[in-house]
Amino acid sequence: GSFSLDSLDLTGISTATLAIGWQFAPQFGYTFELRLDAPNGKKLGEAILKGSGSSAPKAGIQAASLTIPIQPVIDGKRHNLYLVSKPNDPGEPNQVALRTITFVAK
Hints:
The chain has no helices and seven strands. The chain has strands at 2-9, 13-24, 29-36, 42-50, 59-69, 78-87, 97-105. The model has no long low-confidence stretch (mean pLDDT 95).
């Protein structure tokens, strides 16, 4: 899936940190991409949340932090930034939730 953060000036932004949570650990994991102006737009960066590898994952609220290095956007314009997530295997039985996204300047 994906969602957008609209009308952002990304000048000087070097990374985004995602706080991810779940109740059942992902078995195969997820890939998170940041894309410019469309879900299939220019990929600015990605991070991979590794899976547990277990078909009987540990239950209970858990969390992880992922840092995505972002390619510079230097045109000085405002852009829509899309966060696109996809399971690393179509058979992924568990979901994750984005809790926060924090942008970090150089």
